[in-house]
Amino acid sequence: MKILYGVQATGNGHITRARVMAPALAKEGIEVDFLFSGRSPDKLFNMEPFGEYQVRRGLTFSVTDGKIDRWRSLTQNSLIQLVKDIRALDLQEYDLVISDFEPVTAWAAKLQKKPSIGIAHQYAFSYPLPGPGIGRVMMPMIRFFAPVQQGIGLHWHHFDGPILPPLIEAQPYPITVQPGMILVYLPFENREQIRQWLSPFSDYEFHVYCDIESPENEEHIFWRPLSREAFRQAQACCDGVIANCGFGLASEVIQAGKKLLTKPLAGQPEQLSNAAVLEHLGLAEVFSELEEEQFYRWAGRLSPDPVDYPDVAAALARWILNGCHQSAGMLASELWQDLAAEPAVV
Fold first, then answer.
1. Sign of the dihedral through C-alpha 66, 99, 322, 314
2. How far apart are CA 261 and CA 209, in angstroms?
3. DSSP E strands: which ranges in 73-136?
4. Where does the pLDDT of residue 269 fall: very low under 50, low under 70, confident under 90, or very high at 90 and above?
């Protein structure tokens, strides 16, 4: 069996899911080629698990000062190039296309009538979720952006639908707590804004991962270059995490049993929905401007219990090898039964 696996590379969560799926698919003897779009090739890092992967321009969004910049997003994307890439992608040698919300592979599969499945958090919006009803807005866009024959959604709770638990790798480092050490990942905020938010809290130590070449230290703020390995080490020993509302990172924080203070990216419906669900499940506090009272209240909380998510990647790889015949509902039911500490809806 040979698969083309398309990954939307705008967010690191999509790439992380592919990192988890790659060895699971290989273990089942499935041959996989990877295609990434939505990010410049020079901005991709720690890509060794994907071998000789392909890159296309795809579609992405632009951010200015923590908000979606709709004009730049419109002008910097090229629908002409997207159509060219879709038409040029030859799928003859593949038995199946998997899309993690990646448009080039999804549309190529649709046009060439190749079997396709989607594995992504976004496909969970097909079902009712807590919060402001964003799914009604999201689903038409999702169907247009990355259409697939069957979408497998992932979330922190099943909400009585055929939604699977998060698809993340096991934490490779022992979970400890270094009091006062806060891990920060706010890639959509500008550095000066992050500095203003964190500067007043000199009794805490902030390790901020961002797009820089080498480490920089400013009193109690430690700026660190992007590194998957170093980030996971910091995640394992930190006292808490401040981050945007990306699904992948929030899942890792919940898995590790770390308290989460999160800021949804303004104008991004998925992150607004994630924030609402996190609050609904009691898994995080949400902020738009980091205020002293909220920070100290959050920082003073005890760490939550870790959540031991089941091996979703292995289950999906077996499901794919067996022709995707089992219903998504049955697959979801089996995986949630394996979860020892399913989050309670509050």
1. negative
2. 16
3. 96-100, 116-120
4. confident
DSSP-derived letter for residue 55 is: E
Does 206 reside within a domain? yes
| Residues β-bridged to residue 117 | 98, 150
> pTM value?
0.87
Determine the Cα–Cα distance for residues 116 and 143; give it in Å rounded to an integer.
13
3-state secondary structure of 275: helix
> Using 50, 70 and 90 to split pLDDT, how confident is the model at 66?
low
Q: Which is more confidently placed, 131 or 296?
A: 296
| Residue pLDDT, tens place only, 308-331 | 999 999 999 999 999 998 999 999
Residues 6+ away with beta carbon under 8 Å from 310: 165, 335, 338, 339
Residues 152 and 247 in one domain: no
Residue 251 structure tokens:
């899942």
Strand 240-244 relative to strand 216-218: parallel, antiparallel, unpaired? unpaired
Phi, psi for residue 275 in degrees, rounded to 5: -60, -45
Q: Output Rg (C-alpha) for the chain, integer angstroms.
A: 20
Mark whether 16 and 163 lie in a shared domain.
Answer: yes
Domain that holds residue 280: 181-299
